[in-house]
Design a protein that fits this description.
alpha/beta, seven-stranded mixed beta sheet
Length: 387
């Protein structure tokens, strides 16, 4: 059976160059914290990777801390804010702002703080998933400590006006965190231009290995460890270095930095081909997300009268692998909180499919989806009580 993987926002395959780099370095087994030759060699490779990750986002003098992934990096930032408040005993600033479409690791970190007595405000978005600037302006005040906004949404691909948002947050004197897990490598990201205090990344979203991510910390911004132990990462993240993961992350970052413009033009052309093909061949569908400010690889489509899980199962039987939304929330029976926040009703939210493209997708793959999906939708609509 033909297989078309179109779920790159969930995870990406290893690029051949990344796989080759990891394979070449498999024998570099030394503990990067050790002082002997094997340790020094591993340490040198870790620092080389750190430099490549930093270049991807224009880190400059900012610190790059390696973590186990984006979720740990995001949790570390929220833990830092909590420690900052509890350590100083100063509650002059103790309010947190996030958007209604954040990734579950940000949303749940914020809600955990709320349970601890901190004020957390969830900011509304418009029908396209854009943060309502007026809502942010009204929410910012002298008590605001911290604002977290994802650069681009993992489900609908909407890209935020992050420069404007960061400017408003910094003017208010608050710390600014950007979750760039889905944005980095797909659109240009420069933290020095954005003036963000924190930014998070994940290797497996840019064709690197799973189990490794990074947290950027602006020079002078506070940081408290989430994981305590040894001296690794200047004492900010304990644990023996994941050599292979970090080496692969460095190579993936190097490639992404070189090819971000090419990626944007080539992948968006394939995404548009898919969108137009579905609109032409399937009646009564709704495209979710912003029509222009959107990741080049992401297409979220609602199919009224058909249920998302059923669509996925039927596509899978044709070898097409997509998603109903965030892979981190795929076990939930609740409709997507992202789509619900944009004003989409439960029926349309439940009938939505996320197609996320990447390197390796071809025009032939797109045409195969356009061929196989219309009869699936027609069949499911004919069976459905929702139609």
């Amino acid at each position: 059976m033909r297989k078309v993987y179109i779920d790159y926002n969930a995870t990406t395959p290893l690029r051949p160059e990344v796989k080759a780099a990891i394979t070449e370095d498999l024998d570099i087994f030394g503990n990067a914290s050790s002082m002997h030759e094997s340790g020094r060699l591993a340490h040198a490779r870790v620092e080389q990777a750190r430099s490549e990750v930093g270049k991807l986002i224009g880190a400059g003098e900012g610190k790059i801390i390696f973590t186990s992934g984006g979720s740990e990096a995001n949790n570390t930032v929220f833990q830092t804010m909590r420690c900052l408040m509890e350590g100083s005993g100063n509650r002059d600033r103790d309010e947190f702002l996030i958007t209604a479409i954040e990734h579950p690791c940000v949303m749940n970190s914020a809600l955990h703080l709320k349970k601890s007595g901190y004020k957390v405000t969830i900011l509304p978005v418009d029908e396209y998933g854009k943060l309502k600037i007026g809502g942010l302006e009204n929410a910012l005040n002298k008590k605001t400590l911290f604002v977290s906004v994802m650069a681009a949404n993992n489900e609908i691909g909407t890209v935020q006006d992050i420069m404007q948002i960061t400017g408003m947050v910094k003017k208010a004197g608050a710390f600014m965190h950007i979750d760039a897990v889905q944005a980095a490598g797909k659109i240009p990201m420069n933290v020095q231009e954005l003036k963000a205090d924190y930014l998070t990344l994940s290797a497996h979203k840019i064709y690197g290995p799973k189990g490794v991510g990074a947290l950027y910390v602006k020079k002078g911004s506070p940081l408290f460890p989430l994981i305590h132990g040894g001296h690794q990462e200047d004492g900010f993240r304990a644990g023996t270095y994941n050599n292979i993961g970090i080496f692969g992350f460095g190579k993936a970052s190097q490639l992404a930095a070189l090819e971000v413009e090419k990626y944007g033009s080539e992948v968006s052309a394939l995404r548009d081909r898919l969108r137009l093909g579905l609109q032409k061949n399937i009646p009564n569908i709704k495209i979710n997300g912003h029509p222009k400010d959107i990741l080049p690889n992401t297409l979220n489509v609602s199919f009224p009268g058909a249920e998302g899980e059923s669509i996925l199962l039927h596509m899978d039987m044709q070898g097409i692998e997509a998603s109903t939304g965030s892979a981190c929330a795929s076990g939930s029976l609740e409709p997507s909180h992202v789509l619900m926040a944009t004003g989409l009703g439960p029926e349309l939210a439940h009938g939505s499919i996320r197609f996320s493209l990447g390197w390796g997708i071809t025009e032939s793959d797109i045409d195969y989806i356009i061929e196989k999906l219309p009869p699936i939708i027609a069949r499911l609509r004919a069976m459905s009580t929702l139609a």
